[in-house]
Amino acid sequence: MIQQVMSFGKMPLANGFLEKEEFLNEYFFELALQFDSESKLISLVEQPNPSKMFNEKYAFFSGTSKLMQEHFRLMAEDYFKDFLFNKSDAFLVELGCNDGIMLQNIANRGVKHLGVEPSLNVANVAKKKGINVISNFFSNSLALEIKKHYGQADVLCAANVMCHIKDLSSVAQGAFSLLKEDGVLIFEEPYMGDVINKTSYDQIYDEHVYIFSVLSVMNLFARFGFTLFHVEPQETHGGSMRYYLCKNGVKNINESVNRQIDFELALGLDKYETYLDFSEKCKNSKLNLVELLKNLKKDGKKVVGYAATSKSTTVLNYCGIGSDLIECIYDTTPIKQGKYSPGMHIPIKPYIDFENDRPDYAVLFAWNHSKEIFHKEKDFIARGGKWILFVPEVGIIETKVS
Ligand code: TMP
To answer: In the list 24, 94, 263, 368, which could disulfide-bond 238, CB 3.0-4.6 Å?
Structure first.
């Protein structure tokens, strides 16, 4: 049975940063969640057409953060060591390889590889690094073409991609035929356990059609002949999970899977009521954030945003926060700078101006990179600036300068 959980109201595209002239024709859809009591899957009720999100204007470049660069370097090392090393015909395929941040580490080792990336602008950046990429959406029919031209794969992997793909059955079928008999499907995605524990509702936006849990991945992929044999929690994106799947009967199930299932049952991820409770927590978070910003405004403080993340689009639009409460958002991504935030139209400025503009308070939208950012922006704290966080709770953070 599928039941609606909550609605966040009308939402623009999370990465739909736009020019003033585009305000009138901005695209909106209703961002709402539903729960499937059979598979335990949380998904969006409505998702915009993928070509609206992943196209030649896609504004998300994986390679912008040092933390993520290191994360992907270690990921490539793990995949190489565990599944590719010492195989003369080793072949790895990555879905949604973005700018090649992970795949470049595989290519540098001289391993046969292929990236599948529908967003042409980021695919071109990967190609310039010497990575073999095709610009397309992965599907069962594309998998058959890849198999014909390149042969079967040892590893089919994806990071922050699987939760973007509505038609999971086509991907799962494609993965099954593309993988060798002992091949593995590995993907990592923002984790429902963390979303519930931290009330990180900003993980919910157009591109994340699913927020997976171990229970839901196990149930969904079992329908296509896959066994979930291992899971590894990750710190990235504010809490993610890496899922390892094999064809049925090929590998033993690791203790990590049962341990995580026990954790999920204790958290209630299998129950509709848990998500209703989450929806109440989202409403409280909204009220607290808006109240805090209104009070700071009343006190004449200069409040800005830091990092125009995709996640910030949900927060700003759900809470109805515009440039009256947050003057502007500083961001390192050149194609976002000079544009306006989706929906609420807050100006995006180059992060280089952050210190010169001397804000009193900065809302940290990239809260998942807080360690790196607090360190980078020591001067902001030193002169009395303060960070505002909204995950796991709304509050002003006392950080020390070290
Ligand atoms: P995300 O990986 O959490 O989605 O965040 C990516 C966005 O955050 C991207 O637009 C770059 C921006 N950002 C900064 O502006 N400064 C930073 O220090 C970091 C880590 C990210």
So the answer is: 368
